[in-house]
Every structure is written in C-alpha cells, then in structure tokens.
Amino acid sequence: MVADRTRAAVGGWLHARPAAWLAQVATVALDPWRGYATALVAPLGHARVVVDHFHAIKLANTVVDQVRRRTQQATLGHRGRKPDPLYRIRKLLLTAAEQLTSRGRVRLRAGLAAGDPGGEVVAAWQGKELLRAVYAAGDVADARAALGRFDRWSDGVGVAELSRLARTVRAWKAEILAFHTTDGCSNGPTEAMNLLIKKVKRVGHGFRNFLNYRLRLLLHCGIRWQTHQTARLRSRSPRFVA
After folding, report:
1. Where would I find the beta strands (DSSP E) of the chain?
2. For residue 115, which of 158, 80, 91, 163 has the smallest C-alpha distance?
3. How far apart are CA 87 and CA 89, in angstroms?
4. Residue-level pLDDT at 200
5. Which of 59, 87, 103, 242 is the most exposed place for a label (fewest CB within 10 A)?
6. pLDDT mean across residues, the chain
7. What is the average pLDDT across 181-186?
8. Cβ(134)–Cβ(143) below 8 Å
9. Cβ(60)–Cβ(84) under 8 Å?
10. What does the pLDDT look like over 158-181, one tens digit per residue?
11. DSSP assignment of 45-97, as one string?
12. What are 69-102's pLDDT values in tens digits?
C-alpha cells in the first residue's frame, strides 16, 4: 500500500522491490490508464499486461450512461426524473443482454422507443454489448474478430462518446486481447480488497496520518487472526405463534 495513485508512486514502489521479486511477476492486470502502464514498463518489462475485463466494461457502461443523460437533456430539457422513459430503464441498459428477463426486454424496448428518437442510446448499448463479446470470445481469434465488429460499429453510428471509447480500445488492443492468452487474468481480488479498504476508511471517518492508516489496514486486511470457530446456535421456532 502506497500513499498515492500516481505514476510516480507506483514506479517508486516497484523500483524499491528486489530484482528477484520483480522477476517472478509474469502478468499484470490493470485498468486502461497509461500512467500505470508507463510505470510498469521499466521494472516489469518482461511481464504480460492485461486490461481487466471489469474496467473495460465499466468504460462501456459509462458511455451508455453518458449518451442516455445527453439524450434526456436534449429531448426533455432536464435531467432524468422518475417518470422519464430513459430514466426508468437506466439499470436495464447496464445489464448484460443475456441476463435480461422477458419482462426486462419488453421494458427496455418500450423505454427506448419512447425516449430515444435518434437511436443514439440504442447504438451505445449495442456498442457496449459488442465490447462484452470481445471478452466473452472463446479464443484470441474470435476475440480479434469481435473487436473488429466493435470498431466497425463504433465508427459507423457516429455517436461521439462511443467513438471516443473506440479510440481507447484501439490504443489498448494488445492488452485487451491478452486477456485470452492469460486464462482470463483479472484484478478482481485487488478490487475486492480495495472495497474493504474503503470500508475501513469510512468507518474511521478518514485518517490524517498515512502511517497510522496503513497500519490499521494491515491489521484488518493483512493478518489472519487465529481465532476459535464459534459454535452455531441452533434456531428453534416457538411452540405457539400468536
């Protein structure tokens, strides 16, 4: 744990590690930000870099949300409100297509028909699903073909937010495809630990001293305490229910 999230902080921490320790790192999973990637080049130039599935799809979901909000503002003149068609389906737009129920699909189509006259929200949603297909592909060849379909769709529909996402995806093409050559490497465990760290910080209402904060987190997250397993109390329903 280091005190900052900058390229200098990451690079400084890595350069302080022994060479033998760095040599054991074979794969690095990260979000698509060049600051982290640049910090990894010198000390971990031998490692395979993978853009994590979670962060890539999160970028696509952000694009869908941005297009939805812009369309709401353009058609209704205000931010999304409870009765607005697109606002009512905001969570359905971010749900994986295969996880939508029959009722959810009906609601999604109805909301898009009523609130998306230009079809831009539909285009952004389709782009998100095409990017998901890249990670869902069975091998590198299928992933490369799916990536091509995403590029053609993003360039053809003319949605500014989606075009910006496509430029980012093209810049990280090799790292995205590396997902399929590393058995689906992910930094999900790290993200889970980050959520626990943030929970500790909220409970503490912030920490003014970084060393104390780091020590508190190591005690909470970095040690397996040898505690006895407590016996589970057997629940019993009352004999008579009023």
Report:
1. 27-30, 48-51
2. 80
3. 5
4. 86
5. 242
6. 89
7. 91
8. yes
9. no
10. 999 999 999 999 999 999 999 999
11. TTSEEEE-HHHHHHHHHHHHHHHHHHHHHHHHSSS--TTSHHHHTHHHHTS-G
12. 999 999 999 999 999 999 999 999 999 999 999 9
Backbone angles phi, psi at 194, to 5 degrees: -60, -40
Reduce the DSSP state of residue 44 to 3 states and report it. coil
Confidence bin at 38 (pLDDT 50/70/90): confident
Nearest alpha-carbon partner for 116 in 98, 91, 93: 93
79 contacts 35 by C-beta, under 8 angstroms: no
pTM score of the predicted model: 0.83
Q: Encoding tokens for residue 30? A: 């990260």
Q: Tell me which residue has tokens 């073909």.
A: 145
Closest C-alpha to 163, from 66, 53, 39: 66
The mean pLDDT value for 128-143 works out to 96
Q: How many residues belong to the chain? A: 242
User: Has residue 217 got a pLDDT over 90?
Assistant: no
Q: How many CB atoms sit inside 10 A of residue 49's CB?
A: 20
* CA angle at 66 for the pair 30 and 185, rounded to the nearest 5°: 20
Rounded to the nearest 5 degrees, what angle is found at the Cα of 224, between the Cα atoms of 219 and 226? Answer: 115
- Residue 130: which residues within 8 A CB-CB, separation 6 or more? 146, 149, 150, 153
